[in-house]
Design brief:
By secondary structure, the protein is mostly helical. It has two domains: about 40 residues, no CATH class; about 45 residues, no CATH class.
């Protein structure tokens, strides 16, 4: 049973909630900050107006530092695998793209 209908996407709970929050902020003469990130819903609300941001991550403990380094290593690995797949012509769908060389 399909419970999603694209015709009603503008009425999804997340969209309705964001709409209510943004309208409340504007009605009360406040700014609404969506934070960092390039998600499409942010571009819709900002009408394409954006500014560069940077984040500073502080590790208060050795465990925090280890966790941060682990997450950065995982991010680097995902990006590297994507780059290698692109370079090798892999579609990412479980098998490499067809090769023109006979083997």
């Amino acid at each position: 049973m399909n419970t999603y209908d694209a015709a009603y996407a503008r009425l999804s709970p997340g969209t309705v909630l964001i709409d209510a929050c943004v309208n409340w902020a504007f009605d009360n003469h406040l700014d609404f900050d969506f934070g960092a990130g390039g998600q499409s819903y942010k571009q819709f609300w900002s009408k394409g107006v954006a500014y560069a941001t940077e984040s500073l991550h502080l590790a208060h403990t050795q465990w925090g530092l280890a966790g941060y380094r682990l997450s950065q290593g995982a991010l680097w690995a995902r990006e590297r695998v994507a780059w290698l797949r692109e370079r090798a012509g892999d579609t990412g769908a479980g098998k490499p793209a067809e090769s023109s060389t006979a083997g």
